[in-house]
Amino acid sequence: YVTGGSQGLGRALAKWLVQNGASDVVIVARSVDGLKKVLEELEVRVLHHDPIRRYVSADLITSKGASEALEEAQKRHGRYPDHYFLCAGYSRPRYFIDHTPEELQGGLDATYWTTAWTAHTACKAMVANRIKGRIVMVGSFLSYTAFVGYTSYSPGKYAVRGLADALRSEMLLHDITVNLFLPGGIDTPGYEVENSSKPAPTKKLEEGDTLITAEECVNHMVRGLQRGYYQSTTMFVSELMRMGSRGGVPGNNPIKDFFMWLLAGIGMPIWVFFMDYTVKGFRKNVQRELEQKGYYKRAT
Amino acid sequence: YVTGGSQGLGRALAKWLVQNGASDVVIVARSVDGLKKVLEELEVRVLHHDPIRRYVSADLITSKGASEALEEAQKRHGRYPDHYFLCAGYSRPRYFIDHTPEELQGGLDATYWTTAWTAHTACKAMVANRIKGRIVMVGSFLSYTAFVGYTSYSPGKYAVRGLADALRSEMLLHDITVNLFLPGGIDTPGYEVENSSKPAPTKKLEEGDTLITAEECVNHMVRGLQRGYYQSTTMFVSELMRMGSRGGVPGNNPIKDFFMWLLAGIGMPIWVFFMDYTVKGFRKNVQRELEQKGYYKRAT
């Protein structure tokens, strides 16, 4: 059961699952056209597996939409899924004071509620039917730390981490496994849209970042799951951030974790200093722009 | 400008502010009766200060409610506040599968949106009027880590931390200071309500916790602010959690932080082991209860 299955990470994951022999894959997203296109691609490439592949079109930002989508999948397959990959979501970076309330609400819906409602309906279905399954949530590097531009994104991605952390503990009661995958920037259509609204200081801070393809990203996710890691990431700097920010959750490889923890402890204050220094460098420009836009009501 | 000012931490903070000479204090909450009562208490105790004290009754879980409350305060005082203390919020611990969608939504509204909407309207007002003020958000120990029972609370409190982290960076552009205060359990009417719905494993995990009074809590907050700490807490264990979970944000006292970081690195895996061990100990009981309630649809 893959949400956000019409593009980006969700689509690449659905392909990986089919190509690696998964027999019942359901992809869920809003866009029927997008879902059909993915289904065609899967058809062509892996016809010899003959898996039962379906799609469900649904708006997952409501509790009703999320549970109807799951009921639909159950009806078509005759059973509830046992693996849930919650990949739906998007990011629209912008200055906080420029965000409309609708954008802030939409940002939280797209990051948090798309994940939480499906997790809720999935947990209830798995517990009631005694399915010892797995839920994989998708966080972000920006679930660990946040900076200028991400006030409509980081809160939701932090919230996903909060839900995963609480649920990992709680689902020990029902033998259901919860994992959290936290990728960095992925080269997807979503990333291009994201960049079009990105404030100047945010772009500057991300200058050196390298994007990975959705397929590489899936490989990172799968490797983390195969190794039994609760949280896994895609980049060196995310591993540092994991060791500086994960709090009370299980670690991964103890030896690697130890060195990353040391490095994170030394590197974090330096990182914060340079991030803040860069942001402050934009202060004059940003204030001049606001002045020119007539944003200020009172002269200084 | 103190939200959640009718009880608990917000009420205690409003009192502290008036008693320490703040001349214009506005308290905001839903309950008019509660607000009036606080105002009477303040009247009696500190009449000699003669501060202009007002209350605004508002529902802060909507953007409209939050900005109307601020406009009301502006109208009465003739200016926008320069210090915002966002204390509104509550917690209703329960098992995830027992939560109704309304409870999950309400939990996020009460923790995240009460804070985010006021922060949004406050930032816009401060930037537009060139007020070099301060926003203090209230997170929780459960902004750093989460466990069984807190799926309607921790996501919102993690989200508050995400917002504070992003906003601390962004508001460097406008000389506005953002702080995050993360208390442990406080002995308030809210805590009693919280305990009435708390699942058995959650109670067990919190068995050794000591509550502090709202007044002690305010002292911790004030001390952190006076020392210029971005994040401050109320307990030793929260300090450990801060060093294991804060990610890319400024630290406090470098020497204390260093020792706390060492301790957190050693202690965290042990803490996780015992937390998980305790939760697993409830597995049989919880499953038997669900069996008796007829929750299971399929026999094992």
TrEMBL record, chains A, B:
Keywords: Endoplasmic reticulum, Lipid metabolism, Membrane, NADP, Oxidoreductase, Sphingolipid metabolism, Transmembrane, Transmembrane helix. Its EC number is 1.1.1.102. CDD domains: KDSR-like_SDR_c. The chain crosses the membrane at residues 258-279. One of its GO terms (molecular function) is 3-dehydrosphinganine reductase activity. It comes from the Eukaryota. InterPro entries: KDSR-like, KR_dom, NAD(P)-bd_dom_sf, SDR_fam. Pathway: Lipid metabolism; sphingolipid metabolism; Sphingolipid metabolism. Residues 2-189 form the Ketoreductase domain. GO terms for biological process: 3-keto-sphinganine metabolic process; sphingolipid biosynthetic process. This is 3-dehydrosphinganine reductase. It comes from Kockovaella imperatae.
